[in-house]
Amino acid sequence: MNVLGIETSCDETGAAIVKDGRHLLSNVVASQAHLHARYGGVVPEVAARQHLEALVPVVEAALKEALGRGVRVRLLGSPKEPGDTYFLAGALRLKEAAKKTPVVDGSGLKHTLERRAVRELASLINWRKTKVLLPSAVDRFGLAEALDEAGAKVLYGDFIFALGLPIPLYSLSFLQKLAFLLLPLFTRLPFSVLYPTGKKQEEVREDWRARYYAWADVVAGDWHYIRRYMPKDMRGKTVITNTTTEEDVAFLRERGVRRLVTTTPRLGGRSFGTNVMEAMLVALAGRELGEADYLRYIDQIGLKPQVLELEGQA
Questions:
Q1: DSSP state string for 230-289
Q2: Domain ranges for the chain
């Protein structure tokens, strides 16, 4: 068996491929000592960022060196191709337990709605001149792809908000490569480690993450991530999200948010969840649906982004 090993020290990123636990087929190490020399020691934030930047090239070099020897390598636990769906361990057990009825979480409809919303908001927002904070791109890949295609400058905050690491990413292609390598490991973690659950969803913490909100013109994506770390001063900013209540609207208004955009209709003051809507559509269709199906239903129902101007409202 050929095993790919990845290791990081304070200032080195390494990858090696070992055959049968004894034979070293490749060994690549990237040093960042020169980056820390001027500080007289290792700077953790610099080191963390450099590890991420070096990870993909180091792994690619290790694979290339091993493959040059005619060795076949497959990453255990990884999907066959980048872009395949990754399931959290707990969710996968639920999906496999369902024998007749499809299990849906709203992501199919959500990604389709958010892609279209970015295009339809182009008359309101000049994306090429807009800085967008996306706290979690991995679970909003439709939104991430649409923003990238529209030319927005996007900060992908997956490491910042899910893992608490001060490592902003600005390249979608780089994020995709990291996801291909790391998601097979991260999806084995308990859901509560990656996402606020229960009473944690009600907590609001203003900490070092506030600087990323200050940088952005638009904050888009998952509401619980956005709300949990939102600073008190959000004057003039636009929030694009979903599943907000009247209390959430008041919360945004208190912080000076200029505009709230949701991708589903507001019923009784609450924007409707895509998980419920997707379940209804799948039940009506009697089968699992693809993007073309969702687009057809969106047109038939007449779903449009809901824009709520908050400035000047009592």
A1: --S--TT-EEEES---HHHHHHHHHTT--EEEESS-EETTEEPPHHHHHHHHHHHHTS--
A2: 2-67, 96-309
